[in-house]
Amino acid sequence: MNPNEKRLEYPLGDTLAQPGAALELADGVRWIRMPLPFALDHINLWLLRDEIDGREGWTIVDCGVSRPEVQALWERIFAEALEGLPVLRVIVTHMHPDHVGLAGWICERWDAPLWMSMTDYFVARHWSQPDPADAGGATGEPAVRHFAAHGLQDPEALDQIRQRASYYPNLVGPVPASFRRLMHGDTLTIGGRPWQVIVGYGHAPEHVSLSCDALRVLISGDMVLPRISTNVSVFNFEPEADPLPLYLKSLDRYADLPQDTLVLPSHGKPFRGLHERIRQQHEHHAERLAEVVEACATPKSAAEIVPVLFRRQLDLHQLTFAMGEALAHLHALYFDGKLRRSQGDDGIYRFQTV
Predict the structure, then answer these.
(1) Reported confidence tier of residue 132, pLDDT bands at 50, 70, 90
(2) What are the residue boundaries of the Metallo-beta-lactamase domain, all occurrences included (predicted)?
(3) Is the pLDDT of residue 186 over 50?
């Protein structure tokens, strides 16, 4: 456990939800844990006891990736954890594959509506199309050009990125043709209790978190995680983005939640210490930005900043996010006037301290 984690409280200790089972965390709130085919090997999903128009059942929050083994675990959940009641709706926090991947399948399986923010819904619909030329995300030829322009020159890494053009549609099944829009400040009644919608930016286009004051519970999605820092990246589909300030401002939307809030993150274990974790994230990024400014005393590309921010070996999946995050820190400083940017004769963008 790292020093930051020691300042958090894990009320369940080392207890984890088991595959294909649901673990009760609060009245009507159950934890599901599904596998992921990455170094980050799991995602947390949530079952909320609900009643809509007189029908009793469940709301599912997030769905896992579209893989047969994950569907099989869901079938066990449906058979053993729903108390014979139906799924009434599916809420997806954002458009990343581990969250939206099986949303269409679950919605069709239960004839249940999908609830999402509008931006993330349409991104998921667009990127999940089976045509590789239309696939989105940090893969394919557009991503190769983007990363190469920011200093990634290893031919093997670039070729692997090129070959992963179907990455998103391979992990995300068909997204429902209609949805119910969620917006910041909305109040949802789930299980007779009000849940507030908190929208955040920087990690995804329009990320939805859910807070229930009556239960002192926050379903934080990827916006607040206990062990790792939320990825904030600049990718090829928005090459001039400045997402880091958006993310840090979004964290402040949780500032008024109660001190004893139980945070249900998408990765890691449920914890208390929300305000401490927000403080840690602000401090973490302030330190990283200072390191980037120092490193850019001489011109640096994003690829040259990756080892400044990440002092460990990275696989290709991690490298694409590390490149995006390095560029997010460079852009935060560039748009704030602390770095200048130039493109060399080799086509690579480099940043230098003003």
Answers:
(1) very low
(2) 42-267
(3) yes
- Whether 209 and 223 have beta carbons less than 8 Å apart is answered as yes
> E-strand spans in the chain?
23-26, 29-35, 42-52, 55-61, 87-91, 114-116, 180-181, 187-190, 193-200, 207-212, 217-221, 262-265, 271-272, 339-343, 349-353
Helices 274-295 and 302-309 meet at what angle, rounded to 10?
A: 130
DSSP 29: E
Per-residue pLDDT at 338 exceeds 50 = yes
* Helix-helix angle 155-163:316-335, to 10 degrees: 100
Burial classification of residue 256, based on how many CB atoms lie within 10 Å of its CB (0-12 exposed, 13-18 middle, 19 or more buried): exposed
Query: Cα–Cα distance between 299 and 279 in angstroms, integer?
Result: 31
User: 3-state DSSP call for residue 350?
Assistant: strand
Q: In this structure, are strands 42-52 and 29-35 parallel, antiparallel, or unpaired?
A: antiparallel
What domains does the chain contain, in order, with CATH numbers?
Answer: 5-130+165-294 (3.60.15.10)
**Higher per-residue pLDDT: 164 or 348:** 348
Tell me the average pLDDT across 50-71: 98
CA pair distance 350, 340, nearest whole angstrom: 8
**Per-residue pLDDT at 2:** 84
> pLDDT at residue 129 above 90?
no
Q: What pTM value is reported for the model?
A: 0.96
Q: Which residues pair with 352 in a beta bridge?
A: 340
Strands 23-26 and 29-35: antiparallel
The two structure tokens encoding residue 250: 């979004």
Q: Do 223 and 99 touch, CB atoms closer than 8 A?
A: no
Buried b (16+ CB within 10 A) or exposed e, 10-37: beeeeeebebbebbebbebbbbbbbbbe
Question: What average pLDDT does this structure show over 168-181?
Answer: 96
**Spatial CB neighbours of 191, under 8 Å, sequence gap ≥ 6:** 28, 48, 49, 50, 51
d(CA 179, CA 183): 13
